[in-house]
Amino acid sequence: MIPSDRQRLIAERYLLQRPLGRGGMGTVWHATDQLLERAVAVKELNLGDGGGGEEPARRQRRAMREARAIARVSHPNVVGVHDLVQYEDRLWIVMELVDGPSLAAHLATAGPLPVPRTAEIGLQLLGALAAVHAAGALHRDVKPANILMRPDGSVVLTDFGIAALSDGEQLTSTGALLGSVDYMAPERLHSEPAGPPSDLFSLGATLCVLGSGQSPFARPAPAAVLHAVAYEHPQIPDRLGPLRPLVESLLSKNPADRPSSSDAAAVLRPMAVPASPAYTRTLTAQILPTSPPRPRRRRWLRWAVPTAAVLLAGSVTVGFLSARTPVRSRKVTVSALTTWRLVDLPIHKGDRVSVRYLSGTWTVDSKRPRSGPEGFSSPQDAAVTAIAGGCKVNPDVPFAALLARFSYEKPGSNHSLQQHQWAYTAAAAGRLALRINDGDGCLADNAGTVTVQVRVTPSS
């Protein structure tokens, strides 16, 4: 018989310590990656009979798609996937461990959130969903219980247990509904095709609950909830204030009547306030898509923008001081598997821009030692160059160096960090982007991430 401590060691690497939660698809464990000596979350997937006649093989394919869907996404507000393990006839998904409660748990203890905080969370989730949708995936179960809150106040979209690739195989059992009915878009109840607007409907229901503590479709019986979602007008409490027109529009029965991510972000942005003065908002790397104007959606936008203006008029002093803040800052995580990572900070001519290394390592060749943002040593760099050939983006700086470039500069112009920091005076208005010094077609054997702090000091 295998000793009990050995039974808890998965694939001779991940040591399970305690359960964090259980759901329909399995158990999530707090675990330790003994190879990299870091805490991780490990999802043990239950691939037995899933109900409705869904056989284990079909559930396994759906689980594989869950991991692949998340792994495609590199975004600070989407949980990161580290590994997928098949062990003892089970699937185990190794993920980033988020040290914080779900928004559902937070609401249960602290009550509804203020409008500015709800708007800030909405902006982060819009960025997360934009990244998920750009990867060809849908979440399909956006709700407070599936959103975790970090200690710094930022949120993480997690539990892609029913995520499906938009171009993939239909993996749900015939007639089976996957998801939480209170947050499920009407088109899914009618067995119509789901798309990004379906996730935005769920986001609208989530914002309503976050800001008021009440579901817009709360009813005493499950059948009544189904009917309300499919056919009845949502009950949106007055407590939502200026958020109400946007939430009402997101909860439109017709997907075509819902605002796009970019329109929703435009309404939320002037209302949003971070969790605390010390909290620096995490960079949203995914640029929200711009959709062509839809006249039938403009009615809600006309109401939403003046309402937001009323909110701002009530705190004009705070808004003025915020606009005059001399230094703008973002904490940015750059992955070795991405190309250029856009930093969403406005930069004007004469602004002083600095990039300072905070943490993390990476490598441009899995066989080589990991490095910080300054790159490898000369012997290591020469060894990688002999293998990779002309893969460098900037041939004058080492592999694994962190590069920065401005949009106003000529193609090929870029700069590298030296001594863990870099500073530059912008010669014109533009945008800053960061990346590892490895070519677009040479990223397959890269690994790791580096987190830096980007600061912009205005010239006057």
From TrEMBL:
Q: Which organism is it from?
A: Actinacidiphila oryziradicis
- At the top level, the lineage of the source is Bacteria
Name the Enzyme Commission number(s) assigned to this protein: 2.7.11.1
Q: Where does ATP bind?
A: K43
Enzyme class, top EC level, equals transferase
Q: What is this protein called?
A: non-specific serine/threonine protein kinase
InterPro entries documented for this protein: Kinase-like_dom_sf, Prot_kinase_dom, Protein_kinase_ATP_BS
Q: Which UniProt keywords apply?
A: ATP-binding, Kinase, Membrane, Nucleotide-binding, Serine/threonine-protein kinase, Transferase, Transmembrane, Transmembrane helix
Q: Which GO terms describe its molecular function?
A: ATP binding; protein serine/threonine kinase activity
- Where does the record place the Protein kinase domain? 14-272
Q: Which Pfam families match?
A: Pkinase (PF00069)
**Membrane-spanning segments:** 300-321
Q: What is the lineage of its organism?
A: Bacteria, Bacillati, Actinomycetota, Actinomycetes, Kitasatosporales
